[in-house]
Amino acid sequence: MSQSTPQAITIATRESRLALWQAEHVKALLEARGHRVTLLGMTTLGDQILDRTLSKVGGKGLFVKELELALEDGRADIAVHSLKDVPMELPPGFALACVMEREDPRDAWVSPHCAGLADLPPGAVVGTSSLRRVVLLRDALRALGRGDVRIEPLRGNLDTRLRKLDEGQYHAIVLAAAGLKRLGLGARIRAIFEPEQSLPAAGQGALGIEVRADRHDLIEALRPLAHQATWLRVAAERTVSRALGGSCSMPLAAHADWLGERLRLRGAWGEPEGQAPLLRAEAVAEVADLSAAEALGARVAEALRAGGAHAPAQEA
Ligand SMILES: NCc1[nH]cc(CCC(=O)O)c1CC(=O)O
């Protein structure tokens, strides 16, 4: 087994509670291997724009660009990201050094009064922050005959979103279980959506560590933090997104899970404004390496595209 030399590592991180938790988590793992680790807190564009739905802001990588600048000019060595927020194509000169073991990838239902969708009072308002959740929720509500329920945008970090719920602006909100669990807020989760009900986003619940591609020393040091079973899952998921021209602002879900040795990949895509039913696609394959995972992703993307899925028209 190769043993990397202990070194001083600076982690660039956003300053939301969740981002800091994630950076501290990586810091502890690296310190346990003998490295000396410092955090460099930063504010990103995605943290500053709180009044608009992110898909309308339109940029890819709103949460990562400032962190990449810090890697570029050497103020920091690595950046820890929620993989869901990392663009499918990293800019030239950057690499994903590793993907770590996944937290719960599912969506969570948080509501003080309602146990689930079927339990909502007439005309209820459900808050959520991604186009994916909007199209999946709309599909589920349609199946329940609940055209009266309104889905409204919900922005802000986790604490802000929970506060808006507690203030009564929404009857319920839908957000990632992983973030709540990491921050010790798992008790707020009233119900978990199984992937059949709300198919997760590509990479949801997984952490990725980004470095400058020329930092082979760091890629070596980070190798022990990688979790191969997660990496193959998210590689398949992210390929669906990439093939459809995707950013996290697409109405697209892609989620892979292991059926023994075989990887099952499911995808879903919804027309954001239209009334067309949700498109779904699924494929299963034996996957032992990244290229097999990507081939599986390409199959599911092709099936969705054949059904009519496409990249957002206004995106550059
Ligand atoms: N888009 C925001 C975001 N990015 C990562 C997480 C937390 C969960 C994760 O690691 O995927 C969240 C919150 C959410 O979607 O509710």
TrEMBL record:
EC number(s) stated in the UniProt entry for this protein: 2.5.1.61
Catalytic reaction equation(s): 4 porphobilinogen + H2O = hydroxymethylbilane + 4 NH4(+)
Porphobilinogen deaminase N-terminal domain: residues covered: 9-218
Requisite cofactors: dipyrromethane
Record has Hydrolase as a keyword: no
Porphobilinogen deaminase C-terminal domain boundaries: 231-305
Coiled coil: none
A single GO cellular-component term on record: cytoplasm
Cofactor binding, note field: Binds 1 dipyrromethane group covalently.
Pfam families in the cross-refs: Porphobil_deam (PF01379), Porphobil_deamC (PF03900)
Catalytic EC class: transferase
Pathway the protein contributes to: Porphyrin-containing compound metabolism; protoporphyrin-IX biosynthesis; coproporphyrinogen-III from 5-aminolevulinate: step 2/4
Keywords of the record: Porphyrin biosynthesis, Transferase
Subunit structure: Monomer.
HAMAP family according to UniProt: Porphobil_deam
Leftover remarks: The porphobilinogen subunits are added to the dipyrromethane group.
Role noted for this protein: Tetrapolymerization of the monopyrrole PBG into the hydroxymethylbilane pre-uroporphyrinogen in several discrete steps.
Entry protein name: Porphobilinogen deaminase
Gene name linked to the record: hemC
